[in-house]
Amino acid sequence: MLVKTWNQPDPFPWIASTGFTSPRHEPKSLSAIGNRCGKMHWYNDAKGFGFTECNVFVHSRNVVSGELRSGAKIKFDVAEGTKGPQATNVQVLR
């Protein structure tokens, strides 16, 4: 009888901290939800929206401090919007 071990939990989870990647486990993708820092890829001041370098939608109504412009470094939270990830609580760093 053949025993499959691929679906069993990893008995040595500390090994991942050494940099070794097990062929049994695929790395988990980072959640889109959470706090991030980034840079504005482009911003249209006339329309009041733009996108970050990581394709997160930013609207001017979500800016809590600073003046948003293309190339600005920003800190923001990510929430799931109707059409994808959307920046909230946007703070312009410089």
From TrEMBL:
InterPro entries referenced in this protein's UniProt entry, alphabetically: CSD (IPR011129), CSP_DNA-bd (IPR002059), NA-bd_OB-fold (IPR012340)
Location of the CSD domain: 35-92
Domain of life: Bacteria
A Pfam family recorded for this sequence: CSD
Protein's name according to its UniProt entry: CSD domain-containing protein
